[in-house]
Design brief:
It is a single chain. With about 200 residues, the chain is an alpha/beta fold. It starts with a strand and ends with a helix. About 30% of the residues are buried.
């Protein structure tokens, strides 16, 4: 049985910085966001299913998914969102499982912003939450992305509340300082996970 660590955190919490550090330690990372993009790539069965379900307007001239149009559509229509998730979630889960099984590092990390919301934590043995205050999340995300504060607040509101995540996570790292501060917290955890993986 491979030891799988689930890593999560809200927008701007520092998930990416944390996973990049683990990668420098030789740990393989499967990113649910990347998998979600891969399964709706041109020529993929899920994309065809989305087109058949929603109509040709979801496809750009180059044959790729019109993410923006679809995102706006599901934002206004909760039923459409459920329909989309019914197509994408099983395909994402299957691809994640295949990639986790193929990983060869001492342990493997599944990073997902919706680890708990989509029950992806069930694929893991242990979970780590990279946590940050909402003000800090908004500040970081607005610095990094070209999204306005309102959009970022909407994303935070759509995600599971911090307190809920804190209750569910096995380990929590409060990422409220510089990167070195984050890495200092991750080092002992990495040692712990190596032991747990033995």
């Amino acid at each position: 049985m491979k030891f799988i660590l689930g890593l999560t955190g809200g927008i701007g919490s520092g998930k990416t910085a944390a996973t990049q550090w683990f990668e420098t330690q030789g740990i393989q990372v499967i990113d649910a966001d990347i998998v979600a993009r891969e399964i709706v790539a041109k020529g993929q069965p899920a994309l065809k299913q989305i087109q058949d379900t929603f109509g040709d307007w979801v496809i750009l001239e180059n044959g790729e998914l019109d993410r923006r149009a679809l995102r706006e559509h599901i934002f206004q229509d909760p039923t459409a969102r459920h329909t989309l998730e019914a197509i994408t979630h099983p395909a994402i889960r299957l691809s994640i499982i295949q990639q986790l099984q193929a990983a060869s590092s001492p342990y493997v990390i599944l990073v997902s912003p919706l680890l708990f919301e989509t029950n992806q934590h069930q694929l893991t043995q242990h979970t780590l939450l990279i946590d940050a205050s909402e003000d800090l999340q908004i500040f970081r995300a607005s610095q990094r992305d070209e999204q306005n504060i309102e959009q970022i607040k909407n994303i935070i509101a759509a995600q599971m509340p911090r307190l809920e995540k804190q209750k569910l996570a096995n380990d929590i790292v409060l990422n409220d300082g510089q990167l070195d501060h984050l890495y200092d917290h991750l080092k002992p955890l990495h040692e712990k996970y190596l032991k747990m993986a033995e």
